[in-house]
Write a structure and sequence with these properties.
Layout lengths: L3 E5 L6 H12 L2 E4 H14 L7 H10 L2 E4 L3 E4 L2 E2 L7 H10 L3 H14 L5 E5 L2 H5 L5 E6 L2 H11 L5 H17 L12 E4 L5 H15 L7
Parallel strand pairs: 1-6, 1-7, 2-6, 7-8
Antiparallel strand pairs: 3-4, 4-5
Helix pairs in contact: 1-9, 2-4, 2-5, 3-5, 7-8
Bound molecules: 2'-deoxycytidine-5'-monophosphate.
2'-deoxycytidine-5'-monophosphate binds next to helix 2, helix 4 and helix 8.
Length: about 220
């Protein structure tokens, strides 16, 4: 088992960007666990599997060959779906399939295997609570709702910001209130509010925490 840096938090808090940069700086593998839920959601939409059919969704999650490749590329069953998993339809569907326990169990097992052979920075909603409860470094990255909408608006300039705000609020509510592995801060995670911080400041702060918790030669 390698070192694990777990970064959890709501949509738009800046997890992906900072996790990717940290992984680069540390020479760790970056793992975007949300991309895996998105890949299962995409497959379900394509197969017209109802998003409340827990049994079939669990089968898809178990059968899915999901490869997270360098430069943000995501392959599903050998096909490059990197762009296809970022549409608003898939975003909404991912939050629904992520509420299903059987889907989570399948993907959590895949995530745990990914950290067997290398050091990872993994971001998601339940990485510090469920996937790697013993991770040496856990960060709960947050930002206030207005700021999170503003950041998403920068990434999706064509979507009206009221619509973005409504989508983020709905997704947050579902991610935080679901019965299975809801988004919550692990008791031993460091809470970091990025609302008034630059990306560089967030990165430096997390690096400081990493240095204080991971000393040479010790395992996570
Ligand atoms: O981070 P993201 O927006 O790509 O995640 C897509 C959805 O997947 C999101 O609604 C929450 C869910 N998710 C999850 O439940 N657990 C994770 N570890 C990662 C994402």
């Amino acid at each position: 088992m390698g070192h694990v840096i777990a970064i959890d938090g709501p949509a738009g808090a800046g997890k992906s960007t900072v996790a990717r940069r940290l992984a680069e700086r540390l020479g760790f593998t970056f793992i975007d666990s949300g991309a895996m839920y998105r890949a299962v959601a995409l497959w379900a939409l394509r197969e017209a599997v109802p998003l409340d059919d827990a049994h079939r969704l669990e089968q898809l999650a178990n059968a899915a060959a999901i490869d997270l490749l360098p430069h943000n590329r995501v392959h599903l069953n050998g096909e490059d779906v990197s762009e296809a998993i970022r549409t608003p339809e898939v975003t909404a569907a991912a939050s629904r399939v992520a509420a299903i326990g059987g889907v989570r169990a399948a993907l959590v097992a895949k995530q745990q295997r990914m950290a067997e052979a290398s050091n990872v920075v993994m971001e998601g909603r339940d990485i510090g609570t469920v996937v790697f409860p013993h991770a040496r470094v856990k960060i709960f990255l947050d930002a206030d709702a207005v700021e999170r909408v503003r950041r998403r608006a920068g990434e999706q300039p064509h979507v009206p910001s009221e619509q973005l705000a409504a989508q983020i609020a709905e997704r947050d509510e579902r991610d935080r209130s679901r019965a299975q592995s809801p988004l919550i801060q692990a008791p031993d995670a460091v809470y970091l509010d990025s609302t008034r911080l630059t990306l560089e400041q967030v990165e430096e702060e997390i690096l400081r925490i990493v240095r204080s918790r991971i000393s040479n030669g010790k395992e996570s």
